[in-house]
Specification:
single chain, 1140 residues, alpha/beta, Rossmann fold, five-stranded parallel β-sheet, 48 helices, 18 strands, flat
């Protein structure tokens, strides 16, 4: 029985209606009808295809007539998966396309499932109520580059109009005239051409005028009319698209028809262009939302909208999404090309069972090997084996990724070619995988994916004897398996001799000779320079790859000679693996206070740090772990060290060395060779990179395995079970008790609250750690007090008690020190050597302070007088914490003493008795000293306050006395000097008031006399003004203006009733100023009279008379003569105002 005798249709006679390439162009041209008929006849309306049709139709029918939007559809699938075929079938079924012989789309499909037939029937009923049905479809990118213009052309063509917008507008004009059908009939097959050339076509003009002779006198006149009426149209916008689509669909109708618009290969058309994406988005929104739910838009693309970022913007516009996958492709192939005839299953099944051993041997150990689940598909796939079909799919998918189209289109055609080629073989002869090579080698070579050297070698061998032909087949498989080698860790198929033989065997009954020949032929090919073996896998070798291989071998030898380099590489990988294994074991928490303890990773000889858990890393590559274990067992049980022992596996040691060598050598070659410029070079580079990656992965895996098997020991020999990370954490936790034996004394989560409360001088701060007794009785405080000795820096105390064997937190140490200081049990001095109060210092200063234990014990009898002194000084304090404010007390006493005197005439300020001695003390010593002198200091403080008050009371009078003397009471200057020099401000009785009275009397008399002199001069001047006839002629306003201008204004009599009023009056106008005012009055009177004359006689000029000292009548006569001469001369120019 031959293979072809098992098929429903002999492969030699089977014809693919579309040669495996589905295209949509709807409505179809007459020459495409036969192809479409063939597609309908072989359409497998099943699985995702049937489900997709049903979902599309039901979604659309749910929107018709409801005034809403029709949900647009996105059909996705790898290139050729049947998405275009499905869209084409949808269009044919939408209109139930009728063929010339009366056959319909529905009738041609072999089986239309109920879930598709039912909504189609509902669509027909809805179409009768509407304006019928229209289906339009084409591939974007084959026409205009603008999607709106392309979509409009698709719709126009579907309603029988030219896709050109300008020609369509002419067609709509003909329809409006009612002559479109007549003109179309008259022009016949040339209608489209003539209407596109409506200006130049005389046939078109004649046909129109025949129906409407009154439009123009001749076709030429009509041409001119149409040229002006239909100019070049604008670019097609979405608004224009909507208008024209509506007009096109309503052509010859009274209602909108139920319309399907298919835009094929939209994703390929968009090409990640955001502008085109936005246009498609807008078109989809407009077509779906503006046609009463009667327009269904269907778009196709290789990927689902959610899988591509640039397409995600379309998600909301295409709510119905249909995805086609590989399972759907397989189903189509089995029901078409590979469909078996009735009765063929039994012999095929018998043959497969008989050869089950050979079949199960193929690709053993890989994920593509034959499985029990394949038994059901094996009959359907024959003469392809399921395992080989999966290899084909991997190869085709890889080629599809590179753009060669390993898809349904490719698989249908390739599967049919395979069935034809092996159809005449006896049943039991399967299609080998190398058959696939001939289906794409030319395209792969043209695309630069197949090296020319390899292609030429294969072609040469194929024309040779049987041995060479087998070599050619082997080379084909080496090439194809090399294409999918980067994913070999996932699928497990590698180009090894056995695998190559598995995929070459045709006769499943046995080709043992072929299996024996393959390894030998591979070595012959290697000797010829065609292939190379890398780690048991065979790869193509070109001239360039040979150069790469030679460089690799040289570097490999150099690395093997450098053992230190290999050791370094192994150590780096080991550190990386340890880092991964111990990722969560960087530290552990300690106690209820949850202190973080770091785990320090150390080499065997590293010095352990002062704090934290030492984790010693011991490697079997560097040490004898048996000896190490004995040393660990002999260590003290107080030793906090944890040991991680990483075993060395002799069985994989050579493998690790080989992997490290390969990795380093390959990486070096990649760096040295740089970026190749040829396809062969890039292929060699890819192979070298794959070799490096694989070797690196192996090396890492061996080291990871070693680390995963590591053992963790506690010093003393205790083995801790579990994974390395968890075991290390457990060991570190166990080590805490060894490293910090005193930790429990200070382990409490409340120490931060102790510190905060102590900073607020709370005497009960220790209650935050549940300690109600005296602070010095707490273990932490005891330890601190015992450590103080003659004095310790805060930083030293912190360092000691946060480190082993204590390990307390810094809050614990700081809080305890502040509590002890507040309780007067510790004396604190700052970095300046002066006593310091910790609550008043920033935290960072605590480390610079020095702490000493208090030796002086203070009794309540000593505290009482100091409390009285503090109260008198106005300083707040807490009982039993008086020592915290003693520094402030000394400052307050010094201030009070300083204010008991001052600058003369105040007495000299006093000083605080024993102040230098006090400043040399601190803490309880200072408290005791102040307690002894408290009575004296309180008296002193009272006296100092009284003196300061008295000074404050008398200083204002003293300032007034100084002011009066400075203003003119010179008789009192001597008394003032005596008071200042003698510092007698506080003398009793107060010496200043009598001095003020005497000075005031003196100044009162002088001020009254000055005012009287001014007043007499004023009266005299006023009289002169009153006697002057010119002045009398002035109005009151004019007089006032002149007075202001000349400074002739009445002065108020100064107030002299009190010494302070006298001082204020003289400060405003002194005695010398009064005298100058008296002297200036006559001249101001003269100025006022001259101003009055000038006002009444605008031409009057002032004439200055000459000054003179007259001693006789003769001199007088001489002066008068000169005055007369000067005035007379001036009178010639007008009135004169003499001025002396």
């Amino acid at each position: 029985m031959l293979n072809r005798e098992t098929f429903h249709t002999d492969p030699a006679e089977y014809r693919l209606a579309n040669q495996g390439v589905a295209k949509i162009s709807f409505p179809p041209a007459s020459e495409a009808l036969e192809t479409l008929r063939g597609e309908l006849t072989t359409f497998v309306c099943d699985g995702a295809y049937a489900n997709g049709l049903a979902r599309i139709l039901e979604a659309f029918l749910g929107s018709v007539g409801r005034g809403g939007s029709a949900p647009a559809v996105w059909i996705s699938g790898f290139y050729g998966s049947g998405k275009s075929h499905l869209a084409s079938m949808l269009a044919a079924l939408w209109t139930n396309l009728e063929f010339p012989d009366g056959a319909t789309a529905e009738g041609l499909i072999h089986h239309l499932p109920p879930e598709v037939a039912a909504p189609l029937k509902e669509l027909r009923i809805a179409a009768k109520r509407a304006g019928g049905v229209v289906a339009a479809g084409d591939t974007l990118g084959t026409g205009p580059s603008d999607p709106a213009e392309a979509t409009l052309g698709i719709v126009l063509r579907a309603v029988g109009l030219p896709s050109d917008l300008r020609a369509a507008q002419v067609a709509f004009w003909l329809a409006d005239l009612g002559i479109l059908d007549s003109v179309r009939k008259a022009l016949g097959s040339t209608f489209d051409t003539d209407i596109r050339n409506f200006i130049l076509s005389p046939r078109f003009g004649a046909a129109v005028l025949k129906e409407k002779p009154d439009l123009a006198g001749s076709p030429k006149d009509l041409s001119g009319l149409l040229r002006s009426q239909f100019p070049e149209p604008p670019a097609v916008t979405v608004d224009l698209l909507e208008t024209m689509v509506r007009q096109a669909l309503m052509l010859g109708r009274t209602e909108l028809p139920l319309t399907l618009i298919v835009l094929d290969e939209v994703q390929q058309f968009i090409r990640q262009d955001p502008g085109l994406t936005l246009k498609i988005q807008t078109i989809a929104e407009r077509l779906a939302g503006r046609f009463d739910g009667r327009v269904l838009l269907v778009a196709t693309g290789q990927q689902a909208l959610s899988d591509v970022q640039d397409l995600q913007k379309l998600l909301d516009r295409f709510p119905v999404q249909i995805a086609l996958g590989e399972a759907d492709v397989d189903a189509v192939i089995r029901k078409t090309v590979l469909r078996k005839k009735t009765g063929a299953e039994k012999p095929i099944r018998g043959m497969l069972n008989a050869n089950a051993g050979e079949i199960s041997r193929h690709l053993r150990g890989s994920r593509l090997a034959h499985t029990v689940q394949d038994d059901d598909d094996a009959v359907l796939d024959w003469p392809l084996l399921p395992s080989r079909r999966r290899v084909w799919e991997r190869i085709l998918r890889e080629l599809d990724r590179t753009g060669l189209g390993g898809t349904l289109r490719g698989q249908l055609r390739t599967t049919l070619d395979a069935a034809r080629t092996y159809g005449d073989k006896p049943l039991g002869h399967a299609v080998p995988v190398d058959f696939l090579y001939g289906r794409f080698s030319t395209e792969a070579y043209n695309a630069g994916l197949l090296p020319g050297e390899t292609r030429n070698r294969i072609e040469s061998l194929r024309s040779g004897p049987d041995k060479d032909q087998l070599k050619a087949r082997i080379l084909m498989l080496v090439y194809m398996l090399g294409r999918i080698a980067p994913e070999a860790d996932h699928h497990g198929v590698r180009a090894k001799a056995e695998t190559i033989a598995d995929l070459l065997i045709v006769d499943l009954a046995g080709e043992d000779e072929l299996r024996r020949k393959v390894p030998d032929l591979l070595h012959e090919l290697q000797a010829d320079g065609a292939v190379i073996e890398v780690g048991g896998e065979w790869r193509l070798q070109t001239k360039e790859s040979a150069e790469w291989e030679s460089a690799y071998r040289s570097e490999e030898k150099a690395i093997l000679a450098d053992q230190s380099g290999l050791t370094r590489s192994r150590r780096e990988l080991l550190e990386e693996a340890i880092e991964t294994a111990l990722a969560g074991a960087a530290g552990v928490t300690h106690g209820s206070s949850r202190q973080q303890r770091r785990i320090h990773r150390l080499r065997p000889d590293d010095k352990a740090p002062a704090d934290g858990i030492p984790l010693r890393l011991r490697s079997g590559w560097n040490e004898d772990l048996t000896t190490v274990e004995k040393d660990i067992a002999a260590a003290s049980t107080s030793d906090p060290s944890v040991h991680l022992l990483i075993p060395r596996h002799p069985t994989r040691d050579n493998e690790l060395t080989t992997a490290l060598t390969t990795w380093r050598a390959a990486e070096h070659v990649l760096q040295v060779r740089g970026v190749p410029q040829t396809d062969a070079g890039r292929e060699a580079q890819s192979a070298m990179q794959s070799r490096a990656n694989k070797a690196q992965a192996v090396a890492k895996e061996i080291v990871r395995e070693a680390v995963a098997q590591a053992r963790v020991y506690q010093a003393g020999g205790k083995l801790i079970a579990g994974a390395p990370g968890e075991a290390v954490k457990e060991g570190a936790t166990n080590a805490l008790a060894r490293l910090y034996p005193q930790f429990a004394d200070g382990d409490h989560p409340g120490w931060d609250k102790v510190r905060d409360r102590a900073m607020r001088k709370d005497p009960d701060a220790m209650k935050a750690v549940d300690h109600a007794g005296a602070p010095e009785n707490h273990p932490v405080c005891k330890a601190l007090l015992a450590e103080l000795g003659p004095g310790r820096k805060g930083s030293d105390l912190r360092s000691k008690f946060t480190s082993p064997p204590y390990g307390w937190s810094q809050d614990t140490v700081d809080g305890a020190l502040i509590v002890l200081a507040n309780a007067g049990l510790v004396r604190v001095t700052g970095d300046d050597g002066k006593p310091a109060s910790l609550p008043d210092l920033p935290r960072q200063k605590l480390g610079t302070c020095t702490f000493r234990g208090e030796t002086t014990i203070i009794t309540i009898a000593q505290r009482m007088p100091v409390r009285g002194l503090l109260t008198d000084a106005g300083i707040a304090f807490e009982n039993n914490q008086e020592h915290l404010v003693l520094t402030a007390l000394l400052e307050r006493l010094e201030t009070a003493a300083r204010q008991s005197g001052g600058e003369p005439p105040a007495p000299e300020p006093e000083t605080v008795p024993n102040i230098a001695s006090y400043k040399g003390l601190s803490g309880n010593d200072l408290l005791a000293a102040l307690a002894a002198d408290a009575a004296t200091l309180r008296d002193k403080l009272k006296a100092w306050k009284a003196a300061a008050q008295k000074i404050g009371d008398r200083l204002p009078n003293w300032r007034l006395a100084e002011r009066l003397v400075a203003l003119g009471a010179t008789e009192q200057q001597g008394d003032l000097d005596d008071l200042r020099d003698g510092r007698r401000l506080l003398a009793d009785p107060d010496p200043v008031p009598p001095l003020i009275s005497a000075a005031a009397e003196t100044l009162r008399a002088k001020l009254n006399a000055a005012y009287a002199a001014w007043e007499a001069a004023w009266q005299k001047g006023e009289q002169r003004l009153a006697d002057d006839p010119t002045w009398a002629k002035l109005s009151p306003e004019q007089k006032h203006s002149i007075r202001q201008e000349c400074g002739l204004l009445m002065v108020t009599k100064p107030t002299v009733d009190t010494p302070r009023a006298i001082a204020e009056a003289l400060s405003q106008r002194g005695l010398s100023e009064w005298e100058n005012m008296v002297k200036a009055l006559p001249a101001r009177i003269e100025d006022a009279l001259a101003a009055a004359a000038a006002l009444l006689e605008p031409k009057a000029r002032a004439v200055n008379l000459p000054g003179a000292l007259l001693k006789s009548e003769a001199e007088l006569d001489d002066w008068l003569a000169r005055v007369r001469e000067r005035i007379a001369k001036a009178l010639g120019d007008g009135p004169v105002i003499p001025k002396v």
